[in-house]
Amino acid sequence: MDCLFCKIIAGEIPSTKVYEDENVFAFKDINPIAPVHYLFIPKKHISGAAAVNAENADVVGKIFTAIAKVAADEKIESGFRVITNNGEDAGQTVPHLHFHLLAGTKMGWSPETGV
Ligand code: 5GP
Ligand code: ZN
Q1: Which residues, in sequence order, are CB contacts of 15 under 8 Å at separation 6+?
Q2: Structural domain boundaries enclosing 99
Q3: Is residue 114 in some structural domain?
Q4: Could you say which of 37, 45, 98, 100 is catalytic?
């Protein structure tokens, strides 16, 4: 499949890994918008949040479990944000479900300005 994040999981495109288990892969965003900016993705391809369903939803809990573990390891529990963009109008540029983990700065709250 011609999917950028599937290629990153397969190691065909290099990335800086921050977490991996049987179902979940996480790596540093190539264009960070906060001091901590990681992407958490399911190893099995799902095109986005709109494609989550009863059959594949388990991995979303596994991703959030991984996020909590990484947040504890990085000592960012006091302030982090998790975002998923779905669809063009929301700014999704890679059609493989991913959750942005942002931290390390005081964040505003505006979908227009982001952090
Ligand atoms: P989206 O805009 O779809 O919510 O998020 C996609 C994210 O993937 C962006 O923040 C972008 O910087 C990141 N990204 C795109 N291509 C690559 C890549 O080749 N490597 C890494 N590490 N991140 C990427
Ligand atoms: Zn994919």
Answers
A1: 8, 27, 28, 30
A2: 4-103
A3: no
A4: 98
Q: How many domains does the chain have?
A: 1
Q: How far apart are CA 87 and CA 70, in angstroms?
A: 27
Distance 57 CA to ligand 2 centre (A): 16
Global pTM? Answer: 0.95
Task: Give the confidence band of 109 by pLDDT, cuts at 50, 70, 90.
Answer: confident
| CATH number of the domain enclosing 85 | 3.30.428.10
Read off the pLDDT of residues 43-100 as tens digits, 9 standing for 90 and up.
999 999 999 999 999 999 999 999 999 999 999 977 999 999 999 999 999 999 999 9
Tell the residue nearest (CA) to atom 24 of ligand 1.
Answer: 30
Which residues have C-beta under 5 Å from ligand 2, the single-atom ion?
Answer: 3, 5-6, 45, 96
Amino acid, single-letter form, for residue 45: H
* 96 in active site: no
- In angstroms, the CA 25 to CA 63 distance is 8
- 109 located within any domain: no
Please tell me the residue having the least CA distance from ligand 1 atom 21. Answer: 30
